[in-house]
Design a protein that fits this description.
Layout: H1 2-13, H2 16-32, H3 37-47, H4 50-59, H5 62-66, H6 73-105, H7 111-138, H8 141-168, H9 170-176, H10 179-210
Amino acid sequence: MKGLLVKDLIILKRSLKTMAAVTVIFIIAGWADKSNGMLISLAFIFSMMTMSSFSYDQFSNWETYALTAPISLRQYVTSKYLLSGLLSLVGMLLVLVTLVAKLFINQLFDAQLIFLFGGVALLGSFLLSILTLPLLFKFSIEKARLAVMSLVAIFFLLISTVGYLFEKSQVTILNQFSSFSVNHLILILFVTTLGLCAISYPLSYRFFKQKFN
């Protein structure tokens, strides 16, 4: 399992310069964005890097080769979910660091807001991953790309819309988000993500298993 993760991280290392440039662009845009929607989008961008590992595995026929090694189908599928979770975590940490710095410099530090955006960035980006992973296991990367990009577009549209509404009525929304309601919102998002993961993982395993039957 550890070897699979290390292999995927080495593959992603090739895109390090590109991701660094994308990160800088999103941080600069997020700094100027009052709604902070661009910052949350950064976490979603990181979660989608899992596609790069699928692309490499399929084009190099690594999936077939891996099955000749002492690696089970379930271990392979699990490694992709762990990779997605790790990338979502990295994206969330970048969002939090940037948000904390932005709020501190502007003297608007708000722990409740940080918790809200951190939770949405982590759980939201991982939620996007667990929705797209079954598609990547079911189809080739070329066939799945359109469906995955459509899902990403929907998520970004949703973030942009919420961010726009937040920016237009920032004071009202902040007043409505009590500590109690923020905790419940994150809890609902966590339960939803956990529930969908319980459906997504067996589907991914089933689709991947069908490839070799």
